[in-house]
User: What shape does this take?
Amino acid sequence: MLSVGLNWLYITLTIFCVGYGIEYLMEKWLHYRIRRLDSILMAGLVAVTVYAEVFSLFYKVGAIANLVLLLVCAVVLFLLHRQIWKSLGEWWKEISVVKKVLIPILFLLWAFFTSRGYIHIDTDLYHAQNIRWIEEYGVVPGLGNLHERFAYNSSFFPLSALYSMKFLVGKSLHTVSGFFAFLLSITALNITMSWKKRQISLSNYARVGAIYYLTTIVDEVVSPASDYPIMCIIFFIVIKWLDSLEEEKESAPFSLLCVMGVYALTLKLTAGLILLLLVKPAYSLIKKKRIKDIFLYLGMGIAVAVPWFVRTIVISGWLLYPFPKLDLFQVDWKMDAALIEVDAAQISAWGKALYNISLLDTPITQWLPNWFRSTLSGTEKLLILGNVICILVFIGAAVWVFSKKKWKELDMLLVLGTLVCSYLFWQLSAPLMRYGYAYVLLLDFVTIGWLFTRLNWKRLQNIIYFVLIFYGFYKLFVMGKYIYGCRLVECYIWQADYGTYELESYEIDGVTFYKPVVGALTGYDLFPAAPTQADIELRGDGLKDGFRRRQ
Assistant: This one.
């Protein structure tokens, strides 16, 4: 727990400095100031992630990468120290007493949760080894040939490698999932304003969904899985988007949130439909003929996306993985298209509770009821049924908006439509709840909030307000039980480590590799390891040169 807290202080310092530098440039170039501290931290997190990806293309992500990052932070502090101190003073005055008390408590709670808990099966299957590859070598050509799961390129893994601090503490910390959750919990804290108003704004309905999600992952964020950060980013984008709508801001915040939407895509490709929100700022900028701003935002989006695309190409030989239909590159390390299709089919089959790729042709009328019945908890079933109702509400709202020419409602219709499309894509592709919790919750809560605010059901809103208070106390009770139940786990100094498994060695071109004796889990310690032994060869004299299919 102590190691988690110290690691987070370092992460906060670096992303704040980088984020503040970005805020300064935004004010100079776009005449827009990123005012809120959580937004500056998120901007810094995006920039540092891109930096880690770029660095990994040339060298391993470790001590030197952190040294360069610290030099950048030192330059920002030197050049902008007066502005920084002024802004910190303003933020301190603006933060309510309640938040000043709650933020340190949240920091300690999430550090506790991140120090122990359930190591996700995919982490010991390939996440841990993937992060170690980045720590040891950066990006390696054809790494996906060693095992297809290594080709799932998420920008979260270079970020995790950057902050793992193995070069300093001798073990690989994996605290970044918990840090994303901590940042989202700070953003969700603005819901405390509804206590004074006795009314929940539309953005606060999204915050309710975020709080619900956060309470479901307290025992899982110890695992460096990309599923948790991407859900947190989706919540953050929607919350801030609704905040900006309520404050009737111009195109700048919406454009910047779309850049963050590109970032969401690099965390997990399936999040790409969040970019449907791009319609609003694009229309506004084109209508106002703000050509310079259009190119600036496009440039930022490209800067976020290109390193991720390049990493995917180097790792797999394909522009998008696992989508072999887009065949653009002829490189010797290209993965077998048939293998990619099988891997994608396996994920979809497991998500649909079919468990066999030969059953993927099963009609939706057969697999959906079985999936609903066999894989969801009682609460999750209610949420999914709510989604069905929300889709019908969206269709009705769309008809109402266009028939009555309620053009002021187009902004909310775009938000609801984006959530509907994101939910349907998840539901019809690989509907594991951890892949799509944000879409499920946001579609329910934002639709309910929109109905309540438009129909002006104040009495019902008050009832919902008090129900949420009681539900919050219930969740606190459950959380307290969890803390009490794992209080004796000895993780108060060091974070719980990756799992350890019995592995056996084998050789490829004179280099020793490892595979599990039983099962498919490898953990972190023995390296390089993969769930299975691949029929591959080295492209050169060492691991840095990468792998290709045996000729």
